[in-house]
Write a structure and sequence with these properties.
alpha+beta; 2 helices; 135 residues; two-stranded antiparallel ribbon
């Protein structure tokens, strides 16, 4: 693998981790939202999946977003009969977002992004040294 290919692979990794961070940020932003109608469903946590895909233009495998789906786990329930979104029994459905899990996902995506950035920096340095040797 040459240095340009490694740059492209790392750039693809940074791109998908950026998308992952956007999904996590959306989940965190909606962690406490409720439905606008009584008994309605609130925000449902989004998930992101990746796949290994062949980039025909570059002739190499890179990572891509496979799909952005939704988490079908149960909503949290809170007894709050005064809330306008409460059902007939006084329960309000809260999003199935766990802030602790989202923060862990965010930290993991950040570290992966930083690792890809570091790989780009190393490849760039190696390219620069090669050019310096040729001169």
């Amino acid at each position: 693998m040459d240095l340009m290919e490694s740059l492209m692979i790392s750039a693809a990794g940074m791109r998908v981790q950026g998308q992952r961070l956007r999904v996590v940020a959306e989940n965190i932003a909606n962690a406490n939202s409720v439905s606008e109608v009584p008994g309605g469903d609130p925000y449902r946590r989004k998930t992101i999946s990746f796949k290994n895909a062949l980039d025909r233009e570059l002739g190499m495998a890179t990572v891509q977003v496979s799909k952005v789906g939704v988490d079908t786990s149960d909503f949290r329930m809170k007894y709050d009969p005064g809330n306008p979104a409460a059902d007939a029994k006084g329960y309000v459905k809260l999003p199935n977002v766990n802030s602790l899990i989202e923060m862990s996902d965010m930290r993991e995506a950040q570290r992966s992004y930083e690792a890809n950035l570091r790989a780009i920096e190393v490849a760039r340095t190696m390219l620069q040294r090669t050019i310096d040797l040729i001169r």
